[in-house]
Amino acid sequence: MKTTATIFVLFIPLLILLTSLSAYGVHTEGNTFIIGIISPNDNMQNIVYGFKAGLESCGFIEGRNIIYIQHDNVSDVESVVRDMIAKKADIVFTMTAALTRKTKKLLENTGIPLIFGAVYDPVESSIVKSLLEPGGNVTGVKIGGSTEKAFEWLLKAVPNIKTVFVPLSSDSDTAVMCTRVLKKSADKAHVKLVT
To answer: Of 1, 4, 49, 67, which has the maximum CB count within 10 A?
Structure first.
């Protein structure tokens, strides 16, 4: 239920953007919108599916009034974004902090709005200025905040735990931020965190 609610929250800014674009006649092909989707890997397909399903439930039907330009397992972000700009994407949707940062930079001065999903902390990741006033043409969903609660549940399940091993991918912003929060929780509980 929480995943559905989180994904649904993403549609509020998207619907506002689509409504605004429609009102100003930004896209020239009637009421058909072109949405660029950039997914860094196959693990994000559930987010893409939820994104599309949410739009469909709001009346945006692929092939009728919405066209998706979707790129998965992206390694060359620059060429993908340039392709979306050339195809006159109305909005671009990305996932993960690293991919969103690169896309944001490439979309600067194009007027194309950027929506992100699956970003742990968009402020710390330098995607937005603040959650209340993101600035620019960027909005999305912050997924961080559950790390402390997850650690709390671990302590309830294993109350005498002394050491927790956390495999860490240091090239992931999310993993680094999450581990930092986890370390604070572990220190408070006098539990050793091994990364």
So the answer is: 67
Q: Looking at residue 159, what DSSP letter applies? A: T
The answer to whether 118 and 125 are in contact (CB under 8 A) is: no
Query: CB–CB of 115/36 below 8 Å?
Result: no
End-to-end CA gap in the chain = 31
Confidence label for 3 from pLDDT (cuts 50, 70 and 90): very low
Q: Give φ, ψ of 145 to 5 degrees.
A: 125, -10
Task: Decide: pTM greater than 0.70.
Answer: yes
- In the predicted model, what is the mean pLDDT of the chain? 83
Which pLDDT score is estimated for 17?
52
Pairwise CA distance, residues 43 & 65, whole Å: 27
